[in-house]
């Protein structure tokens, strides 16, 4: 049975901010759309392999069940709820940022 993927409001906001900043930087609308679509598409693996993401090194994130996928320079953090077979995409951000600083709002 295929896992459902749900983007939280935070993740949607993250994608919107990535779109805006990339569009301003590149001035290329098509490139921006393809890039953000690629970030969304990277989560498609969760439909069949819901626990395939990497486990964070941080023990607090790990103990709370967070996993992450990588896509280019970006990290896609998610939580998988086995009982309802749903992966909740919690946040999407550039991997050069301190991920603990970004993720502490979920702890």
Task: Reconstruct the topology from this structure.
Layout (H helix, E strand, L loop, with lengths): L3 E4 L1 H18 L2 H14 L2 H4 L10 H5 L2 E6 L2 E8 L4 E9 L4 H5 L4
Parallel strand pairs: 1-4
Antiparallel strand pairs: 2-3, 3-4
Structure at a glance:
The chain has helices at 9-26, 29-42, 45-48, 59-63, 99-103; strands at 4-7, 66-71, 74-81, 86-94. The chain has 107 residues and is α+β, with helices and mostly antiparallel strands. A four-stranded mixed sheet has the order 1-4-3-2.
Description:
With 107 residues, the protein is of the alpha+beta class. The radius of gyration is 14 Å and the shape is globular. The protein has five helices and four strands; from the N terminus they run βααααβββα. It has a single domain, classed as YaeB-like fold (2-Layer Sandwich). Strands 1-4-3-2 form a four-stranded mixed β-sheet.
| Number of structural units classed as domains | 1
**What would you call the shape?**
globular
Neighbour order of strands in the largest sheet: 1-4-3-2
CATH class: Alpha Beta
Instruction: Estimate the strand proportion.
Output: 25-35%
* Whole-angstrom Rg: 14 Å
- Spans of at least 5 consecutive residues with low confidence: none
Helix-strand makeup class: alpha+beta
Number of DSSP E strands: 4
Order of helices and strands: EHHHHEEEH
Mean pLDDT: 95
Helix content: 40-55%
């Amino acid at each position: 049975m295929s896992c459902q993927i749900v983007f939280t409001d935070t993740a949607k906001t993250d994608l919107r901010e990535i779109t805006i900043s990339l569009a301003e930087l590149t001035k290329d609308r098509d490139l921006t759309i393809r890039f953000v679509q690629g970030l969304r598409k990277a989560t498609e693996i969760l439909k069949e392999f819901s626990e395939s993401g990497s486990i964070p090194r941080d023990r607090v994130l790990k103990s709370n069940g967070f996993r992450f996928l990588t896509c280019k320079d970006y990290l896609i953090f998610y939580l998988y709820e086995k009982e309802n077979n749903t992966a909740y995409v919690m946040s999407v951000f550039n991997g050069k940022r301190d991920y603990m600083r970004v993720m502490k709002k979920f702890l």
